[in-house]
Design goal:
Helix 7 (205-212) crosses helix 8. The chain is of the alpha/beta class and 327 residues long. It has helices at residues 2-8, 45-55, 70-82, 126-130, 152-165, 184-196, 205-212, 218-228, 266-279, 284-299, 311-320; strands at 12-16, 20-26, 37-43, 59-67, 85-92, 100-103, 112-115, 139-143, 170-173, 200-204, 232-236, 242-246, 249-253. A hairpin with a 5-residue loop joins strand 11 and strand 12 (242-246). The chain has 11 helices and 13 strands. It is globular.
Length: 327
């Protein structure tokens, strides 16, 4: 585990994944079909994680494709706004379009609509990932959606190989989104292949269950990966907290209860908090709880990247909150 943690302590991450645009109605609680005012923000799980890391004092660079149009340029401008290195964000022309997410700031009857047809980020190819100098970074982070279509899938596996050659650990957020995949069977096979190659795996109970062939098998799948190939595996259970497997450790952690405004953005913010916590040499349990706190801050505010806490916001939240639930 020491090699993994010492790499993360560089607090400088290369992230392979997508950047898009989010729309959400204003004011909070408004249904999409009833809205007349929408706000926009940076979207895409990888881009959100990259922005969250920068807001918490780390460094991140994104590798992806965006559409060669005003929406693609919006995404790049947003990355620059948050301090994410966009040197390896490449525009692609033709009919490829940036992903768009339209979601609501409400929990009850929450609606989220994702537009991914002809997605520009799926056009990322080997040349894109081969242009990266991996030795500049401490670790590679990616999320499962990057594997959902070609040529992005092959390029993502190529980035794993190049990162490993440079001595970087692989941090994999399973992030299974059924709408992006040609079939559940393909997704289960490809995500399992990616998990076996990863040093740290983060997923929820449904995602591990999906890879294992049934949600009741998910916990055993997480435990088996920790015993065989991964150094750390984080098994998230929503309001029930998380179980983290690391060597002989089995760490159970709770959550920071809040009045949630929406369910979106929690996983990306959790990853940003966890990574920057480990980068600050926090004990693993404390870093996991930091990630949970970041997730709670994010779901309590509109938007995803805008709602993610910076260091001052996170410290204020932790100082004022009564503390996490018992695992």
């Amino acid at each position: 585990m020491s090699n993994l943690l010492s790499s993360i302590e560089q607090n400088n991450f290369v992230i392979v994944g997508r950047a898009g645009m989010d729309f959400f109605p204003d004011p909070a609680g408004t249904k999409t079909e009833d809205a007349s005012v929408f706000h926009s923000s940076l979207g895409g799980s990888a881009a959100n994680t990259a922005a969250g890391i920068c807001k918490l004092g780390g460094k991140s660079a994104l590798v992806t494709r965006v559409s060669d149009d005003s929406i693609g340029r919006y995404a790049v401008n947003q990355l620059n706004h948050y301090g994410v290195d966009a040197m390896h964000v490449t525009p692609v022309g033709g009919e490829y379009r940036n992903s768009l997410a339209v979601y609501e700031s409400r929990i009850e009857d929450h609606q989220s609509v994702i537009y991914r047809n002809g997605a520009a980020d799926f056009q990322m190819d080997n040349a894109d990932v081969e242009a990266v100098n991996y030795s500049q970074y401490g670790a590679l982070i990616t999320a499962g959606t990057v594997f959902a279509a070609e040529p992005s899938r092959t390029a993502a596996f190529r980035s794993f190989a190049l990162a490993k050659q440079a001595g970087l650990p692989i941090i994999f957020d399973v992030d299974y989104r059924p709408y992006s995949w040609p079939s559940a069977d393909v997704a289960a096979d490809v995500l399992s292949r990616a998990a076996v190659l990863s040093d740290m795996i983060v997923g929820n109970d449904e995602e591990f269950g999906f890879m294992a062939g049934g949600i009741e098998k998910g916990l055993d799948k997480a435990r088996e990966l920790a015993r065989s190939t991964a150094t750390i595996v984080v098994y998230k259970m929503g309001p029930k907290g998380a179980i983290t497997f690391a060597g002989d450790q089995e760490i159970r952690t709770g959550i920071y209860p809040v009045d949630a405004l929406k369910p979106t953005g929690a996983g990306d913010s959790f990853m940003a908090g966890l990574m920057t916590g480990l980068a600050q040499k926090m004990p693993l349990e404390a870093a996991i709880l930091r990630g949970s706190a970041c997730a709670s801050v994010t779901v309590s505010k509109p938007g995803c990247a805008p709602a993610m806490p910076d260091t001052a916001t996170l410290e204020k939240f932790l100082a004022e909150h009564p503390g996490p639930t018992t695992a």
